[in-house]
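Need tokens for this chain, all 712 residues.
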Amino acid sequence: MATLQKIRNRGPLLIIVIGLALLAFIAGDAWKILRPNQGMVMVGEINGKSVSAMDFQDEVEKYAEVVKFSMGVNNLSDEQYTAVKDEVWNTMVRKSLFEKECSAIGLRVTDAEVQAVIESGQSAVLSQTPFTNANGEFDVDYLTSFLVSYNSMERDAMPAEYMEYYDNMYNFWLYIEDNIKTSLLYSKYLSLVQGSVVTNPVSLKNSYENRIRRSDILLAAIPYTALADTLVSVSSADVKKMYNEKKELFNQLAESRDINYIDVEILPSQADRDEVLSEVSASAEQLAETTEDLAAFIRLAESSVLFSEVPTTREALPLDVAVRLDSVAVGEVFGPYYNASDDSYNAFKILSTVSAYDSICFHRMQVVAEDEAATAQLADSIFKAIKAGADFEEIAQKYSQSGAEEWISSVMYEGGAYSGNDALYLNTLMGMKKGDVVNLALDGATLIMKVTDVKKPVTKYNTAIIKREVLFSNETSNVAYDKLSQFVAGNTTIQDLKNNAEENGYRVYTINDFQSNSYNVADVAKSHEALRWLFEAKEGEVSRIYEVGENNDHLLVVALNKIHKKGYRPVEDMQAQLMPQLINDKKAEILTKRMASASSIQELRSVEGVQVDTVKFVNFTTPAFVSMTYSNEPLIGAAVYHLDREHLSAPIKGSGGVFVAEKISPDNHSTEFEASAEAERVKAIESRNISNTLIQELFYKASVVDNRYKTF
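Here are the structure tokens for all 712 residues:
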């Protein structure tokens, strides 16, 4: 009662508070209506347009389904999924760049052009689709038949798993179609650019001479390493001057970090190994007596290889099992044994062997009627008609199905853990011979199948495999975590970590110019949270311990040493990179004076530090490899191009030393000059260079911002 009285006494105040809260709520919704993107998570920006996380994720999921379908898998690994995200982002960037440029000049691709490519079957991407014939060539009739059948399917009458497969195939085709359209637009745009490349007789002749005319030279060299660095001095003015000359090379398009990190891999202890061996030994003894529900038994044994009711070829089994098959009789258990390649303890039992065909070509159609009895009656009628010689595809098309021939081989299904309907379907098909027809009743589906061709009889094995990788225990993990935790707690700065890591059994690694598009730190799986921390931390900060790795088998501590903002890197950052070249430039001044007074190679032999060797086939365009300095020297070919035979060049400042050259053979030409052939070559090279430069410039102009690390 006292509480109620307090509420009554403060009633006016509560009404005001609730009213203000409601007003704020309504105003918030109104603001969202006025600013629809407010609060929306953005992953980047392309050409001034923001890319939302939702749109990006939708595209990632679509493409992931395409990849899974094309690979014939149900799931992607973390590495594969990361590649999908990168490909989607890169595609979005490329598409935005080219669509903007093509729209500005009215360039487009019509549906008729796309259809022409499909009907010709010439695009390389078409051969990667399921719509191929027995020779692996794209079959447009097969595609057309599928599209007609798909669009006329009664979805409610189809089993869910079959409809899912057809949907995935259809979406895969839509992706291929869009890919063809994008490729055509890209080709059209580049064709316009490349069409602007023209040549003239003078440039063609020069191009030919520069490439073909070559000679042998005698080369005197003094490597920069022959002179100690302490003999030259580089001033801050020298550094500043070279920095200004090369400044455009130091324009950083994305923010980066200099980081340090400690990566501790958690490894199983001897106690962990002994425990796994003991468990596999016990499971192997039970496997010898177990004959029923092997799938459940193998799961309970925690095997990484699940049991399948479908026999497989030797090649589909783990290699350590495959090499031991001939040492085991049917019904026997082999093991336990240790396999070093995957650090596992193993045992297996051969249940049976069968002889079957590796590849089978067959027709297939599903029979569906109004109820189970009607379905069985219709299936029996169709089965008898086909057995009597009726055309399979004609009957299938009456029921809106293709019925076209398709090949299935062992490699297409082996590796899965099949049971129930799936196992019955595959075992039935693999047990058929050429000309066999079967009426197969499955749970929820009835299939009519006819085998038209077979290839390569092989032996297949029905095996039960226990494979246990040796993993670390929670106790082992806790010991490693506690040890690292104590070290980090006592060393809270980057310098402390560096000073004391080694004596505590750790190593501090360094990565300079680390960028957010790496997804993980130091290629350690599932370390994205640590990456996100690095791009939110301040210089000098040390992170907490992150439990990362594919199986949480790594402990990671990261530290942010320095932040490099987008734009021109300051001269101080570039000094270490510029110093080696500056030192060599100073050495080149000394060595040039040392070599300049000599009038012959013979005189140069007596100069301190000079080495002499012959270099063959020197030309204008190809850098000469000099074994005395282990360097490629593009300036030597240019220096001797117009040099008379048996005359010395002036000293040449190269990347590995200073050189003086003498031409010792006459110029020779390995081929005759053909203007038309040279024109094609020059156009191809220049077109490629222009295209690459143009794409890079479009990317720069688009001001692409990649903030995916904040969300993904």
